[in-house]
Amino acid sequence: MSGHNKWSSIKHKKAVVDAKRGKLFTRYIHEITIAVRTGGDGPNSNPALRVAISAAKGVNMPKDNIERAISRGAGGGEGSNIEVIRYEGYGQAGVAILVDCMTDNRNRTVSDVRSAFSKGGGHMGESGCVSWMFHQKGQFMFENSSVDEEKLMDVALEAGADDIQNDTATGVSTVSCASTGFANLHHAIEDAGLEPVMAELLWIPENIISVEGEVAEKLLALIERLEDQDDVQHVYTNMEISEAEMERIKS
To answer: Are residues 28 and 63 located together in one domain of the fold?
Structure first.
């Protein structure tokens, strides 16, 4: 697992138990609403909705919240004009950055994202300028202290997982799968009584750029600036920062 993904693992794990949880809930409420509006309110006939519900369950969103999001999507009203937008750009050292947003005001969002890129020392590019460097994967993260590793491996491989990584440094095991198999794998995990601390569809870089020193510090600051924007739901990069360098920056 790359340094970037280790950093993501730590960040996602904390997101479940800290204040960022509220933003994750908002993100999946929007995703469910949009999926219903575009493909109907039946998970069996709407793959996008099935995946959105599965991901929402992966961050322990209450069932009532999910049902309200489905109802809102089916009935229009509040939130019915929300749309998904992706912006792309570059950070220091040519690092590629994808910024996924949900917004009810394109002009506001593009202005905020462009400003964050500029103030953080990066620049926003044209649509498609870096997205070709990424592919979508499903990822499930488990705390090693609360999961039977052998059982996890058996269930995951039987359900079509591509890879299982055990990172002793972060205490997290990560199960990866093709994006098309995300919902099926999640069902298998739930049926086996296993509880991930995070279940998400992520964009994974094909190639990575290793960074350190001042460049790494500036890139982290840029990403944090982007993530702080209200409409930004997720930021993906192809940077890699070693564990030792991350410890130095955090100290």
So the answer is: yes
